[in-house]
Amino acid sequence: MIDCTEYRRALLADPRSTSPELAAHLASCGECPAYTDRLLRFEARIERALRADLPMERPIAPAGGRGGAPLRGRWGGGWLAMAASVLLALTVAGGLWLGAPHATLAADVVAHMAGEPQAWARTDVPVPSPQLSPVLEQAHMRLRPEAGMVSYAQSCLFRGHHVPHLVVQTGNGPITVMVLEHESVRREEPFEEGGYRGVIVPVPGHGSLAVLAKDGETDLTAVESVAARVKDAIVWTG
Amino acid sequence: MNDDVGGNVGRARFQALCQALRPDLLRFAYWLSGDLALAEDVVQETMLRAWKARHSLKDEAAAKPWLLTIIRREYARSFERKRLPTVDVDELIAREEPMLAAAQDQELAELRAALFKLPAEYREPLVLQVLMGYTTAEIAAELELSNAAVLTRLFRGRKQLRALCGEDTSQDPEE
Questions:
Q1: Which of A6, A54, A84, B128 is 20 to 30 Å from A158 by CA-CA measure?
Q2: ipTM score
Q3: For testing the chain A interface, which of B30, B41, B78, B135 should be mutated: the one with the most A CBs within 10 Å?
């Protein structure tokens, strides 16, 4: 069994560690749970600080239509191009930062998808209850069976909070649901971004749900249907 | 990335992938460089290099670490090419670099400033771990370090960061 010093040293190196040794110490120690709690709160702030919204001032253009013309560097296009890009940057950045925070939220959700490609597997095997329950409990919620067959459940760090990342299997393929209790939206926001099609729906008093599918696999109607079904199937416990 | 790579489908898939990953790539480049304009240049050059080397990406699921590796190399190259000046965090704040200035939350702004005060050798593994979700082994592979060295850097980085932010470090272990 490790002692408090070893535990805290390991925790400072990796606060999200799931090592059984650390869990065993935490369960048996009188002082380390409070220390862990403080450190995890600080960790959430670090994550929030790092995950800053940046202006997306340049479109993605990895290859030109005629064989991939090279992209210009910061000083490569002359003053006129620079002025134009600055103007474009100000317009786009202003729009993104001040006018359309939901677009950024959708972009972050889509970016999160890239980190867990295994979640998109088509399967008829539901996630085992011992794996699903802790994910839901951590978010103070339960899910009635009407939500559909959940094949994937992870508690993911998203914008400084651990949130449920679920995948519901449908006849049209897998649809991802992220429960974003800390992200409020005023109205339903459909989006198409980065090869995904989805919608962010408000959940009064509990933030929002981001529901999305791979573009070309499932139409928006099916995504919206799952969003409504899951929203109705959530039972908030806290 | 293998089917119809050079054609419209390959290009569209590549663009969609880059578009999806761009926010994290840009953040990573920004935390490496401390300079938004430079970060954008590095990301653009990374996209170009990635497009040229797209045949070496066998699995789309590995795209993110593949692109992050290119970003690190591209940033190092830009350093060599331009002999970039070291970014001083106080100067950064004075210039009101967007990320720091945009933080409406003062506490968050201070934390971002503290992150830039960390030595790069501590900041980089921290960003890979917290922002990119890398495991210790993945960080070690990316930075060409041992697992133990990565854990030491993460430990020291967080300790320093907590001290810089005025957190109570009296119960933190010594090395």
A1: A6
A2: 0.83
A3: B41
